Amino acid sequence: MSFIKKISTIHLDILKEIGNIGAGHAATALSTLLDKKIDMKVPNVRILSFDEMMELAGGSENVVASVFLRIEGEAPGSMYFILSLPQASYFIKEMTGEEGFSCDNLPYSELSVSALQELGNILSGSYLSSLSDFTNLNLYPSVPALSVDMVGAVLSYGLLELSQVSDYAIVIDTELSEQEEENCVDGHFFLLPDPDSFEIIFAALGVPAND
Questions:
Q1: 91 phi-psi bin (left φ>0, alpha ψ -120 to 50, beta other)
Q2: Which secondary structure element, helix H or strand E, spans residue 78, and what is its range?
Q3: Which of 39, 139, 192, 198 stands the most exposed, by the fewest C-beta atoms within 10 Å?
Q4: What is the mean pLDDT of residues 199-207?
Q5: Domain-by-domain residue ranges, the chain?
């Protein structure tokens, strides 16, 4: 039986706590970047199949903005941060001041691409730092790859090799909101540890697979 099938509510609770700490770090970084008070929380952590991941992101043909990076180090894996196009457009406008910007209008300016990459860097880096701090594992991110494409194409980029040995991912739902406004942004983190990394991560957390 694969390790993913042995993951219990205890494992998920630990991952949610890691996610909440990562969200706190990300909110602080975003608050500094945007000069606004940002709230960020993790309402849910789930184990989903790859097909369920695609449905969660709006279906395989839904066009989204995605930041993908590889996790290198003692527990390798992949990580995605996915936003809808309206949400990505909102953040880019906030970060760059380009009021007329829209992800629907190509080509994008160099400034807007850099802004979305920086957003992905901040959020992904915050979660990865939290996971590394909790596990005491040496983990570090690759240079993030930005894409605006259909969900199926975006996810296939990272799932091609992994799908040969696994069918599941850890999904950390994320909500971001400005404290003084009603803008709320729902994003999804997809954490895809390589197959051997699941046991490494949970053993480092003190909750081995046979608990």
A1: alpha
A2: strand 77-84
A3: 39
A4: 82
A5: 3-204
Q: What is the pLDDT of residue 1?
A: 40
Task: Using CB atoms within 10 Å of the CB of residue 22, give its burial: 0 to 12 exposed, 13 to 18 middle, 19+ buried.
Answer: buried
Q: Give the mean pLDDT of 117-124.
A: 80
- For 32, the enclosing helix (H) or strand (E) is helix 9-34
Give 3-204's CATH code, choosing from 3.40.1550.10, 3.30.1300.10, 3.40.50.300, 3.20.20.70: 3.40.1550.10
CA 73 – CA 55 distance, rounded (Å)? 30
Tell me the mean pLDDT in the region 6-28: 82
CA pair distance 38, 122, nearest whole angstrom: 13
Q: In the numeric block, which tokens belong to residue 137?
A: 């594992």
In one letter, which amino acid is 126?
S
| CB-based burial, 142-179: b 16+ in 10 Å, e otherwise | eebebebebbeebbeebbeebeeebebbbbbbbebbbe
Predicted confidence band at 143 (pLDDT cuts at 50, 70, 90)? confident
